[in-house]
Specification:
InterPro entries: YqzN_YkzM. It comes from Paenibacillus tianmuensis. The chain is mainly alpha-helical. Helices cover 58% and strands 7% of the residues. The protein is globular and about 35 Å long.
């Protein structure tokens, strides 16, 4: 399984995930890992996009 840095995933956010780089940054924020597979990042992005916003 190929692993990618936050920077690589962010730079390719639109092409790989169909989201803006800011979404990838938010989804990976606070993660302890330094590298991620595309599948791991996609899962984190989906969770991030489905979070409720606190008012």
């Amino acid at each position: 399984m190929s692993m990618y840095t936050r920077e690589e995933l962010t730079a390719n956010a639109l092409t790989v995930f169909g989201v803006s780089p800011e979404v990838v940054i938010g989804a990976l924020f606070g993660a302890e890992e330094e590298t991620f597979s595309v599948e791991e990042a996609r899962g984190r992005i989906e969770q991030f996009m489905n979070r409720r916003v606190n008012e």
